[in-house]
Amino acid sequence: MEFDKDEQGLYEFIELLFFAYRDFTAGPDEELMAFGFGRAHHRVLHFVSRNPGLMVAELLDILRVSKQSLNRVLKQLIEEKFVFQEQGAGDRRRRHLFLTAKGQELADRLGAIQFEQISGSLKGFSPKAYQNICDGLLSLIADDDQKEVLGRFDEARKRSRGSDE
Amino acid sequence: MEFDKDEQGLYEFIELLFFAYRDFTAGPDEELMAFGFGRAHHRVLHFVSRNPGLMVAELLDILRVSKQSLNRVLKQLIEEKFVFQEQGAGDRRRRHLFLTAKGQELADRLGAIQFEQISGSLKGFSPKAYQNICDGLLSLIADDDQKEVLGRFDEARKRSRGSDE
DNA sequence: AATAATACGTCAACAATGTTGACATTGTTT
DNA sequence: AAACAATGTCAACATTGTTGACGTATTATT
Questions:
Q1: A105-131: average pLDDT
Q2: Of the candidates A85, A142, B9, B21, which lies 20 to 30 Å from B27 by C-alpha distance?
Q3: Smallest CA–CA distance from B14 into chain A, residue
Q4: What is the distance in angstroms between the Cα of B154 and the nearest Cα belonging to chain A?
């Protein structure tokens, strides 16, 4: 397996991504079933947990689904008190999304499942090798989206520093 | 971004995988629409292309869906002459799956789209870095499945050597 | 002040893809 | 002959995606 237009290698890469994604999402999916939720709910919980105060429009841009599709799961999460909204201070049309204690608890549990999976899988990797994997995944993302993704990473790290210290 | 139970880094890893998978599947999805097919059809075309003579039971194990769900798309692909079946020589209950010329053409076109995406994204990576990415993806796959995946990789490489020389 | 644009919510219909359960067919094994 | 295995099929239903149309605040523009 080396990179150089080797057709076999490229096909293998495609399959690795498919199987990795398949097995990676399997764990949380099980846990979610107990709540009557699915993968779509997980995505909302994840991104609201990581970006507290996220607006609906931003979430739509992240998930790339129609607002009707998002609204179906978001409505459930709000009705069942996993998520709540706050009207924007400046612009009162905006709804900022946050997790309730219950929502945060579930998001954290799902995160913990994936943490174990990742650290179990990658514990043998050097920091350098791990960096290569992250860089590789990042460059698979469409050029226009990479900036947005990295921007949100930065904000999350700033928030985390702000609350830790 | 370094590997060591850094919560931020692990969350970032999760998101990278999500966005990479999202953007990686977007290309073929568009092409498939023109044929009235979806991602489920793509998976069948891909794995039959890579493993000619694959049995239905093996495909079910790869995709991890119910036979009824598979049958729906497989039936379409057979009726529209992208895939054909051959009765097993030894065990005549078995149906071995193959692509027709038309099916192979479509599978190749979809492969080409993803090839361009991958090589465009990873062209700056050293062979070593590329190897790290592949190893990382592989280890994200459930332990029991890694052997199967690697086994099929080997078979595909053997087949490819057999027909190339 | 009237009008347009924005952010969001909602109703309805429909499509793709997943599920389970039940049953039929054909071929192999015991 | 009876049991098992591999596949196909019918039906019902769940989740998550789509489009189109419309409603309601709120803000921005003219």
A1: 95
A2: B9
A3: A114
A4: 10
Give the 3-state DSSP-derived string for chain A, with helices as H, strands as E and coil as C.
CCCCCCHHHHHHHHHHHHHHHHHHHHHHHHHHHCCCCCHHHHHHHHHHHHCCCEEHHHHHHHHCCCHHHHHHHHHHHHHCCCEEEEECCCCCCCEEEEECHHHHHHHHHHHHHHHHHHHHHHCCCCHHHHHHHHHHHHHHCCHHHHHHHHHHHHHHHHHHHHHHC
Number of domains in chain B: 2
For residue B80, the domain's CATH number is 1.10.10.10
Position B161 confidence tier, pLDDT thresholds 50, 70, 90:
confident
> Residue B136 and residue A130: Cβ atoms within 8 Å?
yes
- Chain B residue whose CA is closest to A117: B140
Query: Hey, of A2, A7, A11, which one would you mutate to test binding to chain B, going by the most B CBs within 10 A of its CB?
Result: A11
Confidence (pLDDT) at A76: 97
Residues of the domain holding A101: 7-123
Q: Which nucleotide is nearest to A64 (CA to C1')?
A: D17
B72 beta carbon < 7 A from strand C?
yes
Do A132 and A119 belong together in one domain?
no
The 10s digit of each residue's pLDDT in B127-142 is 999 999 999 999 999 9
Which residues does chain A have within 8 Å of residue B1's beta carbon, measured at their own beta carbons?
Answer: 130-131, 134
